Amino acid sequence: MSLAPWRSAIAQALHQNRTLPYARYLQLATVRVNGLPANRTIVFRGFLPETNQLKFITDSRSEKAEQIQHQPWGEVCWYFPKTREQFRINGGLTLVESDDSQPDLASARISTWQELSDAARLQFNWPHPGKPRNKNEQAAFSPPPPDRDRPLVNFCLLLLEPLQVDHLELRGEPQNRIFYYRDDQKAWSVTEINP
Ligand SMILES: Cc1cc2nc3c(=O)[nH]c(=O)nc-3n(C[C@H](O)[C@H](O)[C@H](O)COP(=O)(O)O)c2cc1C
Fold first, then answer.
1. How far, in Å, CA of 182 to CA of 39, rounded?
2. Which domains are present in the chain?
3. Which residues have C-beta atoms less than 6 Å from ligand 1?
4. If you measure from the C-alpha of residue 181 to the centroid of ligand 1, how many angstroms do you get, rounded to a whole number?
5. How far apart are CA 81 and CA 83, in angstroms?
6. pTM (whole model) above 0.85
7. What pLDDT does residue 26 have?
8. Which candidate, 26, 169, 165, places its Cα nearest to that of 88?
9. Are the C-beta atoms of 65 and 59 separated by less than 8 Å?
């Protein structure tokens, strides 16, 4: 596997923004079952080893899980404040659930769970996201900590396999914008375009 040409630009942005924890937050847009857009903030969790796929985590009970099963396309929008640059990355989404039969994906799901903080793991033991809140069940939000080695069944690894990357740099006179796209032979092309 060769690194896609946009990987060095992302690596550089991550490095130059490393003091800002929120530089690892980005917005993921998906398509609702009724065709309308849906968008939310999620945390970038690195790249799946030996691939160009971005890793995220989510809950199989969340609305995005259903949206992705229905329409496995997404776009992330990622702004790096310190270097003032934006990456818009679209491509196919893969939801890796507890019953995934591909051994490499199943093991990536487990290792991602093991790398989480206790607080992050605990959230997967909370009541069903998006359902009405039961104020009498406050204790449900202080559940026992889940097993560090065995992911809860609703824990999902979420992968984005990029097809197009639009990189805009506001710094510079004039601004710079580079468009990367992957053709049918899976080869990447790089073009400078007007900002
Ligand atoms: C800073 C921040 C980070 C978040 N990180 C994640 C995340 O990594 N995964 C996730 O599923 N939701 C994350 N959320 C919550 C989502 O934005 C969203 O509220 C939740 O996933 C439900 O979205 P859905 O109903 O579209 O599925 C985060 C929210 C914020 C504000």
1. 24
2. 7-193 (2.30.110.10)
3. 25, 38, 40-43, 56-59, 62-64, 129-130
4. 27
5. 6
6. yes
7. 98
8. 165
9. yes
